[in-house]
Amino acid sequence: KEIQLHGLSILFNLVPLIPEHFHARDGHSILIQFLSSYTDYERKHSCLKVLLNTSEYDFFKKDFADRGIMELLLDIIQNTRENSLDLRELAFNIVSNICKDTRQNQ
């Protein structure tokens, strides 16, 4: 778990530096799978932070809808019992970024 958290922390800082490379390696799909696999706060929070960074780039936005991230994010937002306010806020911000200037995601 600690190694995963450390890796996500590195990705959080690395993605803004090399977004095209991360996209070409399908890193965003791996993050979506990771987010759907774990339910603990620490991993969810770290993964959502990396996804928030990726959601600012147009080439990620186009892929996100096809990969089913919206359903996953809406589940986080709606499930107030299992997800804290900061997790729901991160999910809202990702949804906002994905929809901004991308008509097909709205």
From TrEMBL:
State the signal peptide span: none
Q: Which InterPro entries match?
A: ARM-like (IPR011989), ARM-type_fold (IPR016024)
Q: What name is this protein filed under?
A: Protein HGH1 homolog
Organism of derivation:
Euplotes harpa
